[in-house]
User: Fold this.
Amino acid sequence: MTDTTHKAAEKTATGAAPAVPVPAPAARKHRVWRGVTPWLFLLAPLALLVTFTYAPIANMVAYSLTDWDGVSPELHYTGVGNYEEIFTRPELFEVFWVSGYYLAASALQIVAALYFATILSFNIRFRNFFKGVLFFPYLINGVAIGFVFLYFFQDGGTLDSVLSLFGVTTDHAWLGTPVSANTSLAGVSMWRYLGLNFVLFLGAIQSIPGELYEAAELDGANRWHQFRYIIAPGIKPVLTLTVILSISGSLSAFEIPYIMTGGATGTETFVIQTVNLAFRFNKTGLASAAAVVLLLIILLVTWVQRRLVPDDKVDLV
Amino acid sequence: MTRHAVSRTLVYLSLIAATVVVLLPLVVVLLTSLKSETEMANSSGALDLPDNLLNFGNYASAFRDGEMLSAFANTAVILLVSIGGTVLIGSMTAYAIDRFTFRFRKLVVALFLVAALVPGVTTQVATFQIVNSFGMFDTLWAPIALYMGTDIVSIYIFLQFVRSIPISLDESARLDGANTFTIYWRIIFPLLKPAIATVVIVKGITVYNDFYIPFLYMPSEDLGVISTSLFRFRGPYAAHWEVISAGAVLVILPTLVVFLSLQRFIYNGFMRGATR
Assistant:
């Protein structure tokens, strides 16, 4: 759209030029100036983009082929040794299983968010209150959330106290075994991010024209039918976006487990491991290779996802 | 009719259950922050009310010993500079991409688009070396530069708004003798107000809450932002849940105030920010 308007505008401009007696050098100067102008606007953004996104990616790939420790001036080319190490040392790759907990939590979360978005898009009392309550956790600082839930899962903390209200006593350390710790942490992530998905779904549902529901009701459609045939197709683009965000979020889970357990008791995620390799054990080369693997996986997921559900709304210009 | 009533009750019950799940952990932390050390030691249950609802002693110690004042100051500086930068950079990029046809325009667009797919956490190992080589490590400039340099979402938000501003406005300004920069600064930029509000809110919340970047790039204690300063509570107060709770509440409170006063804009901002 804009493209053609631009071209049309340019055509009239150049086409009209000979008719007006403008001195030629001025016109050329004008044209040169016009060619340079967009780059003046793009100078700072492109410099930042290249410095902080593309240069790191290029360097990362380069480091991943070396045994660099991040400090010493010498780095030795080791070929694909680091990659071999990642895929052959099981403990390095094992951390991916932890993502499974977060993936499962994301799936539950999407279902729950969809449910709440649907019911809150209908007429409900105290709607804004419920909306606010569900969304607010997303806005809270991650470290604060970490502490809130450390206390929540503490022995004799919130969870134990609530359970004892119902006569259930546990001497269970919630963050004590890998399975229960990871489940707890994934639960915290669900608590934290439900609101974002919920708001995205709600926005999409509310952008569906209201007459559709009225028409459907006249045709005798019940709430389930309305969901199945109006809401679900209407929010498909947002749903696919959420799925991508959830998968890449699950793979790169960091804050909550790092703050709450520091990666202890089998809760180490891929990013925690990478950060530790790079900044604690000075294995920059190996950490870079790990990061490249993660990046490739996320790009692959996004690509597959886009292929499966072509989304024509995702054009930048 | 009865079936309807039952389903309606179930809907409300699920909403109330969700409310309890969301609020209970927060309320308990608020209660804990008001308890005294002796109360905690006598191991009153987590759900018990504190003896004195106006016991703000823990807040005083959290604020003073946790150096929260300097944390809030550092956060404020980073917020102001990086958000200002993001708004300028984002709007300039959007203006250049939408209003000009130039060589390599498609390439530039593709560069920004592909960058949006790269999650920041994956490249930090290498980004760290670059930040370090600029001598920005352990200064406030590291997070500022990183927040400004990687925000593709805001560029996208601005782009959508610039596109909705009619080109005839630019053209009539040009006829009046305005050059490109005047058009950007006097016409486009002021018309971007709604987009600027969106970007300020979305970016502001992200920056305020970010832990990863300040944690990696600003290890010095006096450069703590609220996330990292709060994180340091783990050490000295390990067993003092009443002080840790007070610190957490101190950090959450500003968010709550902003949220309650700007609710509508915040929802809109996040819907616009994420559905790219």
